[in-house]
Amino acid sequence: MARPYDPDTFTAHRRLFWISAVFAVIMLAPVAWIVGLSFKDNAELMVGTQSVFSPPYTLANYVNIFKSSSVFGWLWNSIIVATGQTIGVLILSSMAGYAFARLEFPFRKTLFIIVLFGLAVPEQAIIIARHQMFNWFALHNTYLGLILPGMSSAFGVYLMTQFFRAIPKEIDEAALLDNASAWRIFWKVLLPLTLPAQATLGIFTFLMAWNDYWWPLISATKKEMFTLTIGIASSQSNFAQSEGLGFLTAQAVFASLPVVVVYIFFQRHIVTAVSGGAVK
């Protein structure tokens, strides 16, 4: 049976729609501006950027990326670093979350509190000690040196712990009746139920690793080890003058495409995790 028409509800929904639309336009305006600049001729942009939303447009900036830019090497570095950090965070956070939520061991609560302290300690507070440690082990300008710091995720451990706690313990008891070990319960029974949380954590980790600027700026001093964020930042004083603003913004748009693809592919898992529909 259809619901009766309510003018007040309809008006409230319409106002909410327009408010959301205004904020969406404000957030998307800088993105549209960058995309528009990437399709403009560099000589025209040298005069001014007022014509960004008026023709003519050109693909020359994107063609130049495929011809002579170093962006592909930086892109490959970012893919390796972001993927490595994501896999490492998912493995370590899932195992730690299962241990904190399901297993009994000495000082479990104390260790969990120590892990939570990691959420409050800023990265800048430990950067000197980390730099010295990685220098001692000669890990700077290596993929391992770029990946390892991002694998320690206090947020990931907390998220997976809370998610494992939300799973009914009757599932564990049923598996124990079938003589399943703790590892088998984790790997075969509980871990598949955490897919929405893992997808959410994986996306957030991938985005943070992809956009990370602070640690790669310190650890990667050789151009061939630059990630996209460092490479594009180094181009601002070079390509922006020699190649033009349009070429620089085309690099930025090209660099953001993998992130957009990852988010579009996994967004349904984020919705499932947020709505609490992981365990039925």
TrEMBL record:
The record's subcellular location field reads: Cell inner membrane; Cell membrane
Which UniProt key words apply to this protein? Cell inner membrane, Cell membrane, Membrane, Transmembrane, Transmembrane helix, Transport
Topology in the lipid bilayer: Multi-pass membrane protein
Gene3D superfamilies, from UniProt? MetI-like
Predominant subcellular localization, coarse grouping? membrane
Q: Which GO terms describe its biological process?
A: transmembrane transport
Residues spanning the membrane: 16-36, 74-99, 111-131, 143-164, 185-210, 245-266
Q: Keyword Transmembrane helix on this protein?
A: yes
Function according to Swiss-Prot or TrEMBL = Part of the ABC transporter complex UgpBAEC involved in sn-glycerol-3-phosphate (G3P) import. Probably responsible for the translocation of the substrate across the membrane.
Quaternary organization = The complex is composed of two ATP-binding proteins (UgpC), two transmembrane proteins (UgpA and UgpE) and a solute-binding protein (UgpB).
Spell out the protein name for this chain: sn-glycerol-3-phosphate transport system permease protein UgpE
